[in-house]
Structures are given as structure tokens and as C-alpha cells.
UniProtKB/TrEMBL annotation:
InterPro entries: Anti_sigma_zinc_sf. This is Anti-sigma factor. The lineage of its organism: Bacteria, Pseudomonadati, Pseudomonadota, Betaproteobacteria, Neisseriales. Gene3D superfamilies: Anti-sigma factor, zinc-finger domain. It comes from the Bacteria.
Length: 257
């Protein structure tokens, strides 16, 4: 079988192939363990989306927003694009109205009950980290352009920390909406393809508790902290101890103007 591209693999994952096509992909995956591992990661991320944002029965999505997703289906847009639109819809509702899934923060610092920073960072992580086509707006290859653009929009010098020595390479960054204005998200991945995101947001008032805080929502662990009026949150589906080590390395490098 010719090596399937990402669209075919995504269709296989979504159950959209014929029986013969699915059997051919399954046979090909048996001899390509790296591709099989990538597919397993996609499946885990898809499950994470469902777990993190299971809709509450008493909180229906507004009908005009659902209509936009239905229109996309009628127009025959690719499944991955329909899913991205749906995830983006959930993300917008979560940021705008404080609406989120049934999973509560577990084993977290007491402040996690009132801090919006880790919740928003976890939402952004789960929405964008599975994206195959465009996980970032500007790739690491154009890092100078990315830093200049994000710094201009954030009105402060914003640079991604270097985590290559810890095994994480920068993929790139994007701009997101936040409660107090624009938010920057930097995305990293390791050799296995596992992704991690750093969420950088301006706080409405300086915080005095500058230490690390931990929050866990569903499958996403988050370490977050404040410094000089800025909030930082590192999110990933990895063990807490490993994430803390990476957060400590990131914190040492961050010096906003």
C-alpha cells in the first residue's frame, strides 16, 4: 500500500473509510510503528476533547452557533475542518461565558477554583494541540517575525522559552482572545510528537503569589504562575512531576518588560 497521508489517517481514525480501505491502512500501520503511535496520540487527544468538554444537559449551545456547524456539514467540508469549527465554538463559549465540561479541577491548589488562567490555558491546549494542518499561526522557522508580531499585539516583549535541552522543540505560536486583551500561545513537541503549550496572558491586577500553582482538568495538567502583571500556564497531558520540571525551566527564562 502507498503510504497514506494525514487526511487518510484522519479518515481512518474517524471511521470514514470503506472496510477494504480500513483493512489496508490497518495492515500498513502494523509495519509502521511511528505512524501507529501518532494515530494513537490523535485518538487520545480526541478522547480528551470529549472528556474535557462534555456538554452539560442543562446548558444547550445557542441555536445560531450550532447552525454554523450544520451549514459546514451540508457544504461537505472535510471532517477535520468540521471538528475544528466545533472545537473553536466550544472554546469561544468557554472563554466568553465561563462554561466548561463536567470535569472539575482535581488535586489542585485551592486557588484553582477561582483562577480562570489554568482553565483557559487547558481549553486552548486541547483545541489547538491536536490540529494537524495548522497548530500555530506562525511557525518556529519564522520565529523573529512571530516574536515581533506577538510582542506588538501584546504591547510587551514576548519570547518563547528555550526547552530543547529538555527535549521539547518550539513548533510556533499564535494569538488568542483573552479576558484582559490578546493572549499568546506557544506550542512545543518532543521526539514522540507529544505537544505542550505555554499560555501567556496579561492579568487585570498584579498578583503577589508568585509561586507555582497546579491544576488538572480532565486529561490536561497545568502549572501556572504570575510575574509582573503577567500570567503564564504550561499545559500538557503528561505526569505532574515532568510538567513541573519544564515549567521551572520556562519560568527561569521569562523576563517580560
Amino acid at each position: 500500500m502507498i503510504e497514506p497521508d494525514e487526511h487518510v489517517l484522519q479518515a481512518y481514525l474517524d471511521g470514514e473509510l470503506t472496510a477494504d480501505q480500513a483493512a489496508a491502512v490497518a495492515a500498513w500501520l502494523e509495519t509502521h510503528p511511528q505512524a501507529a503511535q501518532k494515530l494513537s496520540q490523535w485518538r487520545s487527544q480526541d478522547q480528551a476533547l470529549r472528556q474535557l468538554w462534555a456538554l452539560r444537559q442543562k446548558e444547550p449551545v445557542p441555536t445560531n452557533l450550532l447552525a454554523a456547524v450544520r451549514t459546514a456539514k451540508r457544504r461537505g467540508l472535510p471532517t477535520w475542518l468540521q471538528q475544528s469549527m466545533a472545537a473553536g465554538l466550544v472554546f469561544a463559549l468557554g472563554l466568553g461565558g465561563g462554561w466548561y465540561g463536567q470535569q472539575a479541577y482535581q488535586g489542585a491548589h485551592p486557588m484553582a477554583a477561582v483562577d480562570s488562567l489554568p482553565r483557559q490555558a487547558a481549553m486552548a491546549h486541547v483545541v489547538y494541540s491536536p490540529d494537524i494542518q495548522r497548530p500555530v499561526e506562525i511557525a518556529a522557522e519564522q520565529e523573529g517575525q512571530m516574536v515581533a508580531w506577538l510582542s506588538r499585539r501584546m504591547q510587551s516583549r514576548i519570547e518563547p522559552p528555550r526547552l530543547a535541552q529538555a527535549g521539547y522543540e518550539l513548533i510556533g505560536g499564535r494569538l488568542l482572545p483573552g479576558n484582559q486583551g490578546p493572549v499568546a500561545q506557544f506550542m512545543y513537541h518532543d521526539a514522540s510528537g507529544q505537544r505542550m503549550t505555554l499560555y501567556v496572558a496579561r492579568e487585570s491586577a498584579p498578583r503577589t503569589d508568585n509561586g507555582f500553582h497546579f491544576a488538572s482538568q480532565g486529561p490536561v495538567n497545568v502549572y501556572y504562575w504570575w510575574s509582573k502583571g503577567w500570567g503564564y500556564a504550561l499545559s500538557a497531558g503528561m505526569p505532574r512531576e515532568r510538567l513541573l520540571s519544564l515549567a521551572e525551566q520556562a519560568q527561569r527564562q521569562i523576563t517580560p518588560d
